[in-house]
Amino acid sequence: MTASVGKNLFYQSLFQGIKILMPIVTIPIISKALGAHGIGIYSFTNSIAEYFILLSGLGITLYGNREIAMVREDKKKLDQTFSELVSLKLMTTAVSFILYSVVVLVFLHRDFLYYIIQSLHIIAVLFDISWFFMGIEDFKKVSLSNLAVQTVVFFGIVFFIKDYNDLPLYLLLQALGNLFSQVVMWVFIYKKISFHFVPIKKMIRHLFPMIAYFFPQIAVIFYTTLSKTILGVLDSQTSVGIYTNTLNLSTIIITMISTINLVMLPKMSNLFSKNKIDEINKTLHSLIHAQLFISIPAAFGVSALAATLVPWFFGNDFEALKIFIPIIAPVIIIMPIGIAISNQYLLPSGNTRIYAISTFGGAAISIVLNFTLIPIIGVVGSVLTSLIVETFVTVFRLIYLNKKTQFTFDKNLILRIVASATVMVLMIVVTTNGMNATFVTTLVQIVVGVISYAGCSTALKVPFLKDLFVVLKGKLYQSKRYKVKN
């Protein structure tokens, strides 16, 4: 791992780590204050806005990241590319905002205030230049600026969200937090870029390549956000709230595990441009197995903790999550693999076709299953649909990867990881059997789980734990040398 990748991973991990810690405090507050119905209203109205947020961005996060990475060593081309992409995004955001306004005014009279607040997320897309900093591999500014804004939002939720009547304020905090986190990044851009508006002809050259990245994202929205929309229409907004919280824990963990995928995208794009195939294959193999070292025990652990975690963490409205969380837990293992394949192989190599086919296939399955299962079994239908769709997407990408690179899983290593995770679960069950559903119980379970998994992994000679200690030891040594010199 190079110094730049290590530094970027540190800042992204810091940001994502705090993003994980914050919900540990805010999810119980929000769940108990707003209840399943309040969370359902937020999630349903946000799901409508998401379609227009997607249209505003038009695939620029991945496309812009890649384009900037390719020209970052040429200042003139860098200025030109940045100006063209921002100018194009101004146009797409304006179109998207107008369409959203028409849809809300004509069709969505209920909860009108909430839709107005959600429109701020669309405006935020206009100011989002995180793709630029990712392309030049400067994750520090993106991470720290986002962290500062999210901290303000965090304290806003802690101090001001008390009951269901605070739902509009909660939506406003989320929307303004998103908007300001994008705006603040412009403070850092003027030293790096000379921005100028460009003629339509020059910006349009990016339109069709961006659309190639945009269409797969449409499919992703169809098999994620669309589930909330369909559930809200066919069932109720309360069901949407239950479904949303079912996904919350797994989504937070997946986000943390997948942080390295975002950091490694520019590096992998660069390796593909230099045709370093052996290094690409080696990196991808190591990355996926390192993720499994974390994701497998995480999935096992979430399932083991559900019964004692749900009552105190989510509140009385969410008792059903004791059953739903173990059902959805396998996606913690499945999704990071699919994300790694797309971000570290398909997209850097410019192979958007397989990426698109997998996501559109997932979208088609999602639509069919949601419309079939939700009328029959409600929220359970949405949960099962999410699991089935994510499995399809990842398996499809794996099959393609195997054909192109002869990628194979290290079955012996995975077996040792599963054995360690199984021991971890048994230790959790045995040591905390009969304890009440409280924060203390969950904390004890986590400590027992981490110690038992680490111990068993070491005994079975799972290499990643040893590598982690070596890295930490090296960082500590460097830190001590720095202090001595200074």
From TrEMBL:
Gene Ontology terms: cellular component: membrane
Transmembrane segments: 20-42, 48-65, 86-106, 112-132, 144-161, 167-190, 211-234, 246-266, 287-314, 320-342, 354-377, 383-401, 413-431
Keywords attached to this entry: Membrane, Transmembrane, Transmembrane helix
Keyword Plastid in record: no
Keyword Cell division part of the UniProt annotation: no
Cell compartments where the protein resides: Membrane
Pfam entry (one): Polysacc_synt
Recorded topology in the membrane: Multi-pass membrane protein
Listed name of the protein: Membrane protein involved in the export of O-antigen and teichoic acid
